[in-house]
Structure formats: C-alpha cells, structure tokens
Amino acid sequence: MPAFYLTLIAVLFAGIGARDQVTIAGLARVQGQRPGVLIVALLSAALTAVFAAWAAQVVLAELPPPARTIFAAIALGMAGLESMILPPRREPREPTHSLGALALVLLAHQVTDAARFLVFGMGVGFAAPLASGVAGIVGGCVLAGFAWAFPQMLDRPAARWLRRIVGALLAVVALGMFLSEIGIL
C-alpha cells in the first residue's frame, strides 16, 4: 500500500502546472469547458499511466533488488529535472476543436512528463507496478479534471514556482536515494 499512497502524492505534486495541465486549461479557457476535452484528457491520463506501469513491470523483471532502488532514483531525478527545466507553454497557439489532435498532443506530453516518470520509478523502486499504475491513473485524472474545471488557477505564477520547487525536491530525494543505496549516506 505504501507504493500506492506515495506514488499518488508524488504524482499530484509533480503534475501541478505540467504541460498537459496547461494545455487542458488553455483549451478550457479558449473553448469553454467542453465535456469532450475532459473525456480525452482522462483517457490520455489513464493510458499513459498504464503504459508507465507496464514499462515498470518489464524493467522490474530484469533488475536485481539492489539495482531497483538506483533505477528508481534515476527516474525520480529525471522527473525532477523535467519539472525544473521544461516550462509549459502558456496558451495553445492554434486551438483546434479536434479531439483527436488534442489526444495526440496530450499523449506526447504525458508519456515524457514527471508524473509518468514517477509512476515508472516508484513501480520499479517499490516492486509494485500495479499499485503505482493505479495511483498514476487516479492522480492523472485528478490533475486533468482540476485543469479542466479551474483553468484560471494555472495562470498564476505560484503554479510555475510550485512546479520548480517540487522538481528541486524530487532531484534532492533522488540524490539522497542514490547516495544511500551506494553507502555514502
């Protein structure tokens, strides 16, 4: 159960102000809160979390237990760097009403975002890809629903700063895990 709760908390924090959230919020502001946008966002969040959990299951079968923690630390570090370095675009430049185009954009954003790195890393680190995957689905859907329901909240500078702070914390936790596993801490 710790894998579920810790992954859920990490995904919720790491997903604040992420690229997919900003895209959903931007479309909700420009086009109104269309139910189709919410449905596509929820499906995309679920599919990418399932993919991350599946990838964790594949990697988990190949790694011995000591390497799992190091691999999880690398994934957490990548999530932290992604949160600190890659800023999301503010508004969609050419908002389209195509839900298929939105699905492609969201899938591209979510496959490589911090939240899915966390699902992947926590699934490997805790040896619980199913629990981490379910937490990723729940967290991703909550984040997508929040962006759709309250698009104005992501316009504030506090969301961008919170994203960078969470990224820095993830990087520090990853470094601590790594140093602890190799015996320095």
TrEMBL record:
The chain crosses the membrane at residues 35-55, 67-86, 98-119, 126-149, 161-179. Keywords: Membrane, Transmembrane, Transmembrane helix. This is GDT1 family protein. It comes from Novosphingobium album (ex Hu et al. 2023). The lineage of its organism: Bacteria, Pseudomonadati, Pseudomonadota, Alphaproteobacteria, Sphingomonadales.
